[in-house]
């Protein structure tokens, strides 16, 4: 799979997938595209998009699929994504997975791998508290997790059926998870 550069990272908040997406992307020479980061940047900039998503994000809920479709199709149309990408935080719902398929079909491309990074709930919560982001109160974290289980977890079966799903245990050191990801994508260490 060494040439397979279109990758989706799937997993709950605080599973470490953001960190890993950045590390693997730099190793593969493709952009790490985090929709959460894009939205936070929009909120910080006070752009139209930011004004539309700020409240929803603060509640730990999901931004609506149509708006996310605009954000992601514009981002994937940029030059740096032409030879691959790691998507971190998208798709998060079944309709988003269908949207992504549509975008890739038009580009005559397909996903090479979807990698699930998961860890036990208590580990996720403890990590979130350690991170201490302003919006990460225990309540909001629990809401984010509930939304993940309800809306995003069905994607595991969806991608498993398509034969592209891989799983890595996120309850390990950053280095260990990184090593396993390299093995999954077929890059020697
Ligand atoms: P993240 O950093 O990926 O946890 O994203 C932070 C927040 O941005 C989420 O809790 C959502 O409110 C919003 N968000 C990010 N990506 C998506 C997405 N694919 N669909 C809907 N909302 C999203």
Q: How are the secondary structure elements laid out?
A:
Blueprint: E1 6-10, H1 17-28, E2 32-34, H2 35-45, H3 48-58, H4 65-76, E3 85-88, H5 94-106, E4 113-118, H6 121-131, H7 138-152, H8 154-161, E5 165-169, H9 174-185
The structure holds adenosine monophosphate.
Residues 13, 35-36, 39, 56-57, 60-63, 68, 89-90, 92, 96, 144 line the site of adenosine monophosphate.
Characterise this structure.
The protein has 189 residues and is of the alpha/beta class. The protein is 56% helix and 12% strand. It has a five-stranded parallel β-sheet, sandwiched between helices. Helix 1 crosses helix 9 (174-185), helix 2 crosses helix 3 (48-58) and helix 6 (121-131) packs across helix 7 (138-152). The longest helix has 15 residues, at 138-152. It is globular and about 40 Å long. It binds adenosine monophosphate (AMP). Adenosine monophosphate binds at residues 13, 35-36, 39, 56-57, 60-63, 68, 89-90, 92, 96, 144.
The share of residues in helices is 55-70%
Major beta sheet, specifics?
5 strands, parallel
The general outline is: globular
Please give the number of β-strands.
Answer: 5
Bound molecules: adenosine monophosphate
Q: How widely separated are the two ends?
A: 15 Å
